[in-house]
Amino acid sequence: MPWFLVHVLWLAILAGAACATFGCSSGDSISGEVRFHREVDLPDGATVTVKLLDTSLADASAVELGAVVIEDAKSLPVAFSIEYDPDEVDSRAEITLQARVEVGDDLLYINDTVHPVLTRGNPRNSDVQVISVSESDQCVEPLPGQIHSSFWEGDLPDDAVLEVRLWDVSEPGERFVVVEASFDNLGSFPIDFELPHEGVEISRHHRYELQADIWFDGELQFHIPNPEWRRTILPYCPDGDDLMIVNDVFPVSEFPAE
Q1: How large is the average pLDDT for residues 61-69?
Q2: Per-residue pLDDT reduced to its tens digit, 87-102
Q3: Does 241 have pLDDT greater than 80?
Q4: Using the 8-state DSSP alphabet, how is residue 100 labeled?
Q5: Which of 71, 87, 234, 258 measures 20 to 30 Å from 194, CA to CA?
């Protein structure tokens, strides 16, 4: 037998022995990141589980095509890679990714939107966006805001002060102030501000109103008169420029409080 054939045969034997010892995969893989809307540290012992599922049948359980479990995950986002057998993937099926972040039996994060992959023109790889299942997330960023008005041109008086309060109005008759602050040296509209954030909890399940009053010459001059105009949506803690509290104020002389 020629020496090169002996060499090839010997390599094949070694490869087969390695597969027998360690296991080999002939499948493909899919990869991405499990992401929250901002970077977040995870508690000790957190586990991230990502599954590749055939979810074609609405009245039947999803079929698991592959999964990966990431032990002791430290933070989000976290990268994942799932191996699967392409022969098990029907090109007509709906294939999706599912992610869960848990500590023991406690669920911390899960995806609430569909992340399709592989079939029906969807990409091979995809990130999975998760939400917190906790009713409130501790804010780690300032609460940025901006106040506009079309009823004043130029700079505001030197003694002008902006008072801002964010109210939780989720329960009728039980409204309360979540955070408040005042600002001077306002300059001109639009007025940018940042509400204090330490210890503030913003719930994606609650409703909020923004109260903004501008005082000068010893009197209230601008406000948001209509309660409906004060409504503001804060589904998550603000993350950079992705979410900003924006509202308009109106002169008290022309728009009395309702």
Answers
A1: 95
A2: 999 999 999 999 999 9
A3: no
A4: E
A5: 258
Which of 15, 23, 74 has its CA nearest to residue 48?
Answer: 74
Asked whether the beta carbons of 26 and 15 are under 8 A apart, the reply is no
Is the pLDDT reported for residue 8 higher than 60? no
Looking at residue 198, its amino acid is E
Tokens describing residue 239: 């993350």
Tokens of 136: 């409130």
Instruction: Give the residue with greater pLDDT, 132 vs 31.
Output: 31
- Tokens standing for 150? 């079309």
Phi, psi of 228 (to 5 degrees): -65, -30
- Report pLDDT for 1: 52
Q: Positive or negative CA dihedral for 188, 190, 191, 192?
A: negative
Q: What's the pLDDT at 201? A: 75
- Do residues 244 and 146 touch, judged by C-beta distance below 8 A? yes
Strand partners, 216: 219
Each residue of 142-154: pLDDT tens digit?
A: 678 899 999 999 9
Q: What is the mean pLDDT of residues 160-185?
A: 92
- In three-state secondary structure terms, 22 is helix
SS percent in the chain: helix, strand, coil, step 5: 10, 45, 45
Residue with tokens 């969807």: 122
Number of helices and strands in the chain (H, E) = 1, 22
128 versus 11: the higher-pLDDT residue is 128
Cα angle at 49 between 48 and 50, to 5 degrees?
120
Burial degree of 45 (CB within 10 A; 0-12, 13-18, 19+) = exposed
Rounded to an integer, what distance in angstroms lies between the CA atom of residue 166 and that of residue 147?
Answer: 13
Whole-angstrom distance, CA of residue 14 vs CA of residue 8: 10
